[in-house]
# Entry
Amino acid sequence: MGTNKGASVRFESVQKSYDGETLVIKDLNLDIPRGEFLTMLGPSGSGKTTTLMMLAGFEPATHGEIFLNDRPINDVPPHKRGIGMVFQDYALFPHMSVAENLAFPLKVRKLPAAVVEEKVTRALEMVELPGFGDRRPAQLSGGQQQRVAVARALVFDPDLILMDEPLGALDKQLREQMQYEIKHIHKNLGVTVIYVTHDQAEALTMADRIAVFNDGVIQQLSTPDELYEKPANAFVAQFIGENNRLNGTVRKIDGNVCLVELDCGNTVRAEKVNVGGVGARAILSIRPERIELAPKKGAMANNLRARIEELIYLGDHIRVRMSVSKTDDFVVKVRNASSRPALSVGEELNVGWHSKDCRALDFNGA
Amino acid sequence: MTVTAPGRVELTALTTGDGTPLKLALAQATRRARRRAFLLVCPLLLFVLVTFAVPIAQMLYLSINNPIFSQHMPRLTAYLQANPVRGVPGEEGFAALALDLIDAKKNRTAARVGVRINYARAGSISLFKSTARKVRKLTGPPYREKLLKINEDWADLHLWRVMERASSSHTLSFYAAAIDLTYDLDGNLVQVEPERRIYVLLFIRTWVLSAVIAFLCLLLGYPVAHLLATLPLRYSNLLMIMVLLPFWTSLLVRTTSWIALLQSQGVINDLLVLLGIVGEEGRVQMMYNQLGTIVAMTHILLPFMILPLYSVMKTIPPDYVRAARSLGATPLTAFLKVYFPQSVPGIGAGFLLVFILAIGYYITPALVGGSSGQLISNQIAFHMQISLNWSLAAALGAILLFGVVLIYWLYDRLIGIDNMKLG
# Structure
């Protein structure tokens, strides 16, 4: 398999409305280079599946243009786009055997029978289901059906694969295994993959880049680590991973750092991301694993008094729910090391974090 | 498990904790629920038994059993059973005939017996009636001479053969008559004269017309059912109401409105004349023929095709066709290879339903069918209401019933009744 494969996709100011009154997609601009694994992540109704359907050709764009390999495809019918697609419910044809399902895209392309047979055999080997060709989809387990669906989307060598929540119906263990397998297939074949999911862990595991959708708009488009560590707004911070929010008002801005006065009166230093000027309301976002309990004096830029409300034992770590600055769902993850301090509900102690781990975000984003 | 011999393990019935066999315990536990279920269906079961199953069984029995002759002519019946007819009988047979006719006159049953014999030999009603009128004057033997003097038809060998067959109440002659067969003078089954062969033709016409109607319903109903299953809810609800609208109108009204539309002075012909497509003399004969039957019945039976199709199509996820399209299939290929095969259970159910309904349809062909658009059901009605040959009507009905069961069986073998969805 060549590595120079894969298609590029470009959305140019695409809008979509179903009823003529509300926009499901508001001015979408998205550039996906060859061979990328891009995940569209977002809550249901955020427009990610609609975007996929427009790209596949099942829904017309109300406005704007979609390009596949720099060729506009708005007027190209689905069957001429040459895009492989994996559906949420697999959509394996129940009246055909597995081999017939896999042969379907090859036969409609009128390939010779010998080529069809060879490609089908190879596809079954790729998804580790050799010898399953004669079975009906209903005779396969969910995971096996999933593999067949992936194989069918790949068997006609498309440059672009769309996956619409393909692992949603599988149980957790199988889902994780399939995530790695899909990832490996992507790496080996070098095709472009656009993957829709509402599961943020899945998105972080698989994607080269993640586009976070909400309300018909891409909130942030970046790599998984950047998305997690540097959320661009309060929605992304809240949606990806666990997040503590503290509300306050910006008092001073000094380059990339700003001083925020919390509602309880204390002032903390935070990384300025997208706040308004001095006096604007802001949300501070801090990841639970970046907070330390009872830090040494002077080690952390920010120190606040906190009270332990609840302890949840999770084996490798302990979730400590605390009340800090007028909120009582401030969560700290404490690694279950032998050196960890003894904690008890009702105890009062200091919590601290570095200013670079605390991001000041726009209040409107949430 | 108990060990009965070294190395041999035998399975025994499972038991509950206190040693009751498991099956018995289960039966006891579910008895209440089953009794309740039975009581709930009991009224309907009784209703169906009394008003449906029993009359059907009676009719079927009537088709092979007609006791009118043996009941009203007991002496002659006894004589004919004992002495097979080889020629016109002698005095003994005529004596039995005369005495039975005297009784028949008293009991006013001579005409009924005459009707029974008339099924196989024309002219028998008047023979029996006129003879019975005069037979009272007979005071004694010789009956043969005196009866022949009253009417010399009594010397007809064919008549005696017919009476011999009628004297045994169990007979297949009605089934023979229902497929245009009759007995000749030697008692062999032969086809009736060509101009009287009507039932086989009618059966064939009924089957062909029903198949044509079912096929037309499929052709017209398939796209509608597809729309119903795929349109957004607010449109599909409206469409569904339009499909169901005919159900809220009387069958008679719907049929007569077709008369208003199709007749030679009807709406369609008037329009054609008005538009100058046909001349005043060239009005198209669209009813009182097969065309009328086909048009009206296709319209009336259409919902019975659409509803089973709809219920099957509703369960076909749109992703299947999308998948086929994304895999490179044109809309037509996606339909033929993916959508159509999955709608086959609906096609089977709808076709079977419309076909079976059409085979037994009566009112519509009677009103708009004319003579060429009549179906077998119209003949059955004729024999039930006009000719009063119930046994023949029953035999025709039984053949129809057998045909329907045969189709049902074939369907089960080919597609499977389990696959049928009626809505």
User: Anything to note?
Assistant: The two ends of chain B are 48 Å apart (CA to CA). Residues 1-5 of chain B have pLDDT under 50 and may be disordered. Residues 206 and 375 of chain B are 5 Å apart (CA to CA). DSSP finds 19 helices and four strands in chain B.
